Amino acid sequence: MGRNRKTFTDTLKKEVALEALKEQSTVNEIAVKYGISASMVSSWKKAFMSGGLSKEVKQLKKELVAANQVIEETYKELGKSKMENEFLKKKMNS
C-alpha cells in the first residue's frame, strides 16, 4: 500500500516560516523540531515571503487581477470612443 502524505495547516506553515525568518535557529534545527525536512522549511519560508501562505493575500491577488482586467477593458472602450469621436469630428468639418 502507498504511504499517506502528511498535510500541514497554514498556521503551522506560518509558524515555521516565521521561526526561520527570525534566524535564531538553523534550518536543520527547525526541521528537526517540527519533524519535517529542511527543504520544506525553506520552501515555506519562500512561500511566506511571497505571500503564498496567506489566504487573504491570495484573495487580494485574485481581486487585483480582476480589477486590472476591468481597467484594461475600460481603456479599450475609451480608446474606441475617442477614435469614433475624432472620426465624427473630421466628417463634420468635411
What does this structure look like?
With 94 residues, this protein is mainly α. It has 2 domains: 8-53; 54-94. 77% of the residues lie in helices and 0% in strands. It contains 4 helices and no strands. The longest helix has 39 residues, at 55-93. It is rod-shaped, with a radius of gyration of 25 Å. The model has no long low-confidence stretch (mean pLDDT 87).
Would you spell out the secondary-structure blueprint of this structure?
Layout: H1 10-22, H2 27-34, H3 38-49, H4 55-93
Helix pairs in contact: 1-3, 2-3
List its traits.
94 residues, mainly alpha, 2 domains, 77% helix
CA gyration radius, whole angstroms: 25 Å
Q: DSSP strand (E) fraction?
A: under 5%
**Bulk shape:** rod-shaped
Q: Treating each run of at least 4 consecutive H or I residues as one helix, how many helices? A: 4
The number of distinct β-strands equals 0
Secondary-structure class:
mainly alpha
Distance between the termini: 83 Å
Helix content: over 70%
Quote the average pLDDT.
Answer: 87
Describe the main β-sheet briefly. none
Parts with pLDDT < 50 across at least 5 consecutive residues: none
How do the SSEs run, as a string of H and E?
Answer: HHHH
Number of domains as seen in the coordinates: 2
